[in-house]
Design a protein that fits this description.
The protein has helices at residues 35-53, 55-59, 80-95, 107-113; strands at 11-14, 20-26, 68-74, 99-104. With 114 residues, it is α/β, with parallel strands linked by helices.
């Protein structure tokens, strides 16, 4: 799963606090044309759509009655437009009652976990 598969929730987990965490796996570089940013926006909107229609809860019933966090795990550092987008997304999601996290990992972080 990845950011490029808009209609798919990449990873669902329950964190130590009992929150349902919906993770977006983002391997793409941030480009000056902001095509990456638009893919990310579509992916977030797809997650919200699945939550709001109940499709998420049908597929993951353990997510019911939990706070929801949308987490982006990226391998590339955002550019200026990316940082601005992430701040706006955080504000919008927070005001709608969702949590939001952005985590940047390197490929060496992942290979060290294998």
């Amino acid at each position: 799963m990845s950011i490029e598969q808009k209609g798919v929730i990449d990873i669902v987990s329950i964190d130590v606090k009992g929150n349902a965490v919906l993770t977006i796996s983002d391997h793409l570089p941030w480009d000056v044309e902001n095509e990456h940013l638009l893919l990310l926006q579509d992916k977030i909107n797809s997650y919200l759509g699945a939550i709001e229609t109940g499709e998420f809860y049908d597929a993951y019933p353990n997510g019911k009655n939990r706070n929801i966090i949308i987490r982006i795990v990226a391998f590339e550092s955002p550019n200026k437009d990316g940082f601005h987008f992430l701040e706006r997304a955080k504000g919008i999601l927070t005001s709608a009652g969702y949590g939001f996290e952005f985590v940047q990992k390197s490929f060496s972080d992942i290979s060290g976990e294998l």
